[in-house]
Amino acid sequence: MGRILTIGIAGGTGSGKTTITRRIQRQFGGQVCTLYHDNYYRSHDGLTMEERAKLNYDEPAAFETDLLVEHLAALRRGEAVDGPQYDYTVHNRAQRTLRIEPAPVVLVEGILILADDELCRSLDIKVFVDADADVRILRRIVRDVRDRGRSLESVVNQYLTTVKPMHELYVEPSRRRADVIIPEGGHNEVAMELLIRRIQAHLQEEGQNGKAVL
Question: Which CATH class for the 5-205 domain?
Fold first, then answer.
């Protein structure tokens, strides 16, 4: 495998990071693999469900970022990794792992990936996805209640006590490290076309078959 292009996709909760990631995945299929920072939340097997629910999941210490950096380095060497998976319904890391095969393009997605120095140095392109705060909280409520089995009260309480203050303390300042800031996430067609064409150019340089159709 030739040179691997690494792209970090950061931004606040509900900003549209996953929309961008999924569009790139659909566009390039097996030529892309993805590491989700959320899957690297630390394991808290020694705590009760109630205790885990009270933890701050929006600060850098909540993540095992060192492991993510190790896995990213392995993928860049052309080695497969067994990535962790996180179970949001129980606020803990799952027992199962996910086999991730190396690919010419590696995406790294998460709210705090640009807040970590070593991880930033491992990224060729750093993207920050921007969206209004009211849009982000509404998206988070819908996602957490519908997909993660959360109650509306718990989502709102978590947002006010940790998500919002941690966004202001860590996430928002990290945008200064971004090479590209994309308003409106995956719905920004101009930005998406530029990003997809950059990936296509890399694949063509490395002798792959990049697709450019949006």
Answer: alpha beta
Return the residue matching tokens 């890399």.
Answer: 202
Residues of the chain with pLDDT under 70: 1, 208-214
Q: How far apart are CA 105 and CA 178, in angstroms?
A: 18
Residue 9 has φ and ψ, to the nearest 5°, of -120, 105
Structure tokens at 103: 């690919």
Cα separation, 138 vs 47, in Å, equals 30
- Cα 34 to Cα 28: distance, rounded to the nearest angstrom: 12
In angstroms, the CA 35 to CA 194 distance is: 22
Check residue 135 and give its pLDDT. 77
145-195 pLDDT per residue, tens: 887 778 888 888 888 888 888 999 999 999 999 999 998 777 899 999 999
Amino acid at 129: V
Within 13 Å, how many C-alpha atoms sit on residue 161's CB side?
11
Number of H helices, E strands in the chain: 9, 7
* Domain boundary assignment for the chain: 5-205
Contact predicate 112/174, CB 8 Å: yes
pLDDT digits (tens, 9 = 90+) for 70-82: 999 999 999 999 9
